[in-house]
TrEMBL record, chains A, B, C, D:
Name of this chain's protein: Chorismate synthase
Species classification: Bacteria, Pseudomonadati, Pseudomonadota, Gammaproteobacteria, Chromatiales
Annotated FMN binding sites: R125, S126, S127, N238, A239, G278, K293, P294, T295, S296, S297, R319
UniProt-annotated stretches for the region Disordered: 41-62
Similarity comment: Belongs to the chorismate synthase family.
Superkingdom of source: Bacteria
Enzyme class: lyase
SUPFAM superfamilies (alphabetical): Chorismate synthase, AroC
Pfam families in the record: Chorismate_synt
HAMAP family xrefs: Chorismate_synth
Amino acid sequence: MSGNSFGRCFVVTTFGESHGPAIGGVVDGCPPGLELSEADLQRDLDRRKPGQSRHTTQRRESDRVQILSGVFEGRTTGTPIGLLIHNEDQRSRDYDELADRYRPGHADYTYEQKYGLRDYRGGGRSSARETAVRVAAGAIAKKYLAVRLGVQIRGYLSQLGSIRPKVFDWEEVERNPFFWPCAETVPELERYMDALRKEGNSIGAAVAVVATGVPPGLGEPVFDRLDADIAHALMGINAVKGVEIGAGFACIEQKGTEHRDELTTEGFLSNNAGGILGGISTGQDIVARIALKPTSSFRLPGRTVRRDGMAVEVITKGRHDPCVGIRATPIAEAMLALVLMDHYLRHRAQNADVTPPLAPIPSAPRREV
Amino acid sequence: MSGNSFGRCFVVTTFGESHGPAIGGVVDGCPPGLELSEADLQRDLDRRKPGQSRHTTQRRESDRVQILSGVFEGRTTGTPIGLLIHNEDQRSRDYDELADRYRPGHADYTYEQKYGLRDYRGGGRSSARETAVRVAAGAIAKKYLAVRLGVQIRGYLSQLGSIRPKVFDWEEVERNPFFWPCAETVPELERYMDALRKEGNSIGAAVAVVATGVPPGLGEPVFDRLDADIAHALMGINAVKGVEIGAGFACIEQKGTEHRDELTTEGFLSNNAGGILGGISTGQDIVARIALKPTSSFRLPGRTVRRDGMAVEVITKGRHDPCVGIRATPIAEAMLALVLMDHYLRHRAQNADVTPPLAPIPSAPRREV
Amino acid sequence: MSGNSFGRCFVVTTFGESHGPAIGGVVDGCPPGLELSEADLQRDLDRRKPGQSRHTTQRRESDRVQILSGVFEGRTTGTPIGLLIHNEDQRSRDYDELADRYRPGHADYTYEQKYGLRDYRGGGRSSARETAVRVAAGAIAKKYLAVRLGVQIRGYLSQLGSIRPKVFDWEEVERNPFFWPCAETVPELERYMDALRKEGNSIGAAVAVVATGVPPGLGEPVFDRLDADIAHALMGINAVKGVEIGAGFACIEQKGTEHRDELTTEGFLSNNAGGILGGISTGQDIVARIALKPTSSFRLPGRTVRRDGMAVEVITKGRHDPCVGIRATPIAEAMLALVLMDHYLRHRAQNADVTPPLAPIPSAPRREV
Amino acid sequence: MSGNSFGRCFVVTTFGESHGPAIGGVVDGCPPGLELSEADLQRDLDRRKPGQSRHTTQRRESDRVQILSGVFEGRTTGTPIGLLIHNEDQRSRDYDELADRYRPGHADYTYEQKYGLRDYRGGGRSSARETAVRVAAGAIAKKYLAVRLGVQIRGYLSQLGSIRPKVFDWEEVERNPFFWPCAETVPELERYMDALRKEGNSIGAAVAVVATGVPPGLGEPVFDRLDADIAHALMGINAVKGVEIGAGFACIEQKGTEHRDELTTEGFLSNNAGGILGGISTGQDIVARIALKPTSSFRLPGRTVRRDGMAVEVITKGRHDPCVGIRATPIAEAMLALVLMDHYLRHRAQNADVTPPLAPIPSAPRREV
């Protein structure tokens, strides 16, 4: 009800504030028998963690995750997996002057309208720090999906401001600090980000995530379609303002003959659907893209109001990402993994004994977004 | 789990297939004491129902809704509201030849992969006919929100293919069969649709929905943000491939100074946020836009496969909407109403006794999308 | 949230009041491919329906159930099953004088405290009439459990006032109007009930339900243990004041050596556990017993208060069961079926691919309660 | 789905095994602004913790709870409250020989049937050690209910084997290590327990819990009646085999004239209902009683089978409670508090603005069970 749990069968609950002693969570519903260690989670946590380059926040967190339960002799037991990450590098004093004023573009005002009070240190619960737990939980889902079903989930930064990749190469994505699929344009990104940092401003971005090898049949009509739940998951990431699946907003100008993905015995001929028809996976690549707003945490002054109703100016100190889209890639991957894992288990509940009349149709090549 | 219920506090469950005897549903959680009659539901059902102009499907359904329970002496009692709508104009024979083949761009293939069998008459459960029940349930939410909180929810067709309105006028929206906010361009729409019908093709569209007068504080961090739940609700409408809130995908190219909505004592100075910050309503207009794909139900032949794996051609007979976006407007309004109603009750559970330190900041003029 | 749905995977939602036009419901999550017709539901509805003998209420309801969706060509499709039962024999005028007073032992007072108003005709939503829908839904679960898993669910009246069966014979249960397992004591029951009816009073009773052939492994630690969910299901039946599993309250005076059910390779040596250990089914018979209060609907006057706070006397007219325990047997069976069905699907979600190291231990003979 | 969360609005999720590094949990949905510190939780944890007298297990755990989030400057913020309790005194070697055999009366066999593997150290997740987290979470609910609504929740041991209290005095309950309401019979209990310990056996017990000052109107018909949810909560405590409300099983032999609680303007004249009518609280004391089985952890050998199917004898070493009923009192109080808190918030969601026509009727004196 209060929104800190995600999923129905593979349920992730998170807790923790930016400047409290620790963040953590519980993963309930993981099937038993999966080989799992903290190292499996750490890899994605390290991809997300701050301070990896000069282009992200300089807060230093080792983001070491502890597994407190649910794993015995190297395997999951089917009982809940308790996760804990200690906060280390807090500078709460940076936030003292925000106690009585609402930063524009932030959740300060809305939290106080909702709860009557708020933990103002570093945004408290509204900080993207919470997403570290999602990444840890998502890594468990990713591992299960990979090991048991052969599903691979990957993401990349697909646009930063008006900069777009010129070519696309999955291999490049992990070779630069931007999760950028095009080596040629990395220097352009670096120059842009350096200028932006000097300016003290921030910029929007887009991230794409792709799941390959998803079995057909996942997703529940009519309300919990796979695409609806992906939209819920991705729009629930801090700063996201838009989600599209497959052809997405481009479909507005498409005709039916152009959009529909015809089927042959060799496979689908296109993937405008983004791997989902009628809310259920087709077996093609699932392709989603999100728009992330420019963060409102930067040092250029802005107009706002105080707790007592007075108009004031505010400058956001603290250490922040000038483009939150960069570190969002592993978070988006994690959320997509959580949705697919959850729907796989949901599907199994009702349909574990179904044999479809037709063998799955081969998946067509992915549509790049 | 099987996805036929929506909401946590104001829970709508629907049942029914396109060509079964009836569709219907249950609304559980409506507060008691609300004046309610079938006429309150019928108004929106009539806006959605087929056959209202030559530009939508010619299936004739009166879509008369019956309230079977939960209302006593003209008021809701707090017990579940049973809803029933009989199907009247079914031509199931139109679908006989689809029993063994999967229309491209349809849920035929995915339903059969999921369940092993399917009701192929008119798409069965995957038909948009099911949305009539959502509209009926949404009308209850709309009425509560209007009467008790002063919230107004409206939608319009914001793009059809490449045609966009030239001017914007709420008054126009209900004066033409397209929910189109611009009288000047209606003839252009009509010509386009007439040509499309002759061609036998279909076209995509965009719909915008706006909620005015929403109290601040609605929405639950971190997973069930108001925008995340709106995305879930709207992406769960048949044919929707994208959802954006406020500035939406345009935020990718915005800088922070441009995007953040500054606050003054007279109100917010802009509404790039679309009325939601940190997943919680600000009190500004909530603004969402969706992209609807061109339906795959049209009479131009397409390649597909049969149940036995053979490649064949298929033509979709039956009576269909060449632009499903047109009738989607009342559906999108209904879904937004259901989200807001549900979050209002969710909010009340935890925070019924909260007094925020600051009176709500006046709402700035709506950002047209 | 408002409590009109039951289950997580096999979800039953009911609607309807005693004196409205109809009662009904939705079953969501039934696996596809199950052969199902209205006749499968009618058998248990007929066992529950009023007017079967002079010992139950004389209200005449045919209780004909219609399946409105979710079944195609004689098989379930995996989509929601809509159920409808029209109310036929309402005498709402019997209740006019109850509009302003609260019958003692009834929900009149509590409904009005909760909702501020109530449908007073025949108890409205609080009437046991609603349980007809549970019986219909339970019949679907019963059929699946029987056909696919070989589970048999049966119940009987195990005590009426101070009368207990002298011998136990399952064959007798369906041969008398009391669901009584002992032919010899049926005349005693009839004499008692005739005298009670003349007196105008009511009496309590106990019902036992037994599930045979349940696979081991069903039930979710720690909160949703199988026994906890059975307790929830059975205590949720109108008039139930107590639930026990296996040895039940008798275990208070047992020592550990007496209570623990030892295991041998031939099976468990006893069944004090009632088929459940650590909240998970053992494979033995699941045995539960419930206590049902004497109904408060009878014609002897009682003290109460009016809506305006005045003290008055009240007599409950209308047609009522002098022992609600009698017709409770099929309801208790239905609820047990719903719990087992739901937990079977829940179990499958997480553990569909588990192979236990040891073949299930044979089930010991049932412990009669 | 996997059963490690409790509640809908005030949601408690627990994790942790008996012999892992820590146990803990998350409380989601606590209203903001409640004064809360670790000391508020510690009091009940100390009442439950082992080693308080020679009559309970000699495992030494300080059971110090840490609040990791959700509290800022001494008040709850409305965000999730993370709880952590480190395990300290584990002697896992005591359990090595249980790795391959199933103790009779324990969850060993059922866990392995369900999950295919199990953490055998001290019962793993099935250990009552997990209930420490419930007690911590329950203390938060208790505090809210007391401070904001004036509800008091208390429990006591109402029977141990065949020993019953001779007189009842709430004052005595916290003065002896048994939560026993009768000073006169405490020596009898001590002698009995000393003899039992020498014998190496265990004994059953009964615990009663009472909530005073509960507002009328809590509870949701039809499935989530307040009594149904109390039954779920209490039957979900380790070792519980029966639950009764108010008159409970005694109602089987009651007549209607005896059972119904008549109302006068001075209050109800009796409380056979145990404070609940039609599943909704009346405002009278809520009274529930549970039966706890004799633990199967004791040192007298018993027959069982091994993982490989061989018949063997087993002796349970380790340190155990010869009567688990004794320490169950604070656990039962906690579970009742969680149910009431959850239903208070659920009620508020739908009915926050209801004004009942009649002021609540005064509560009659509690019926002692």
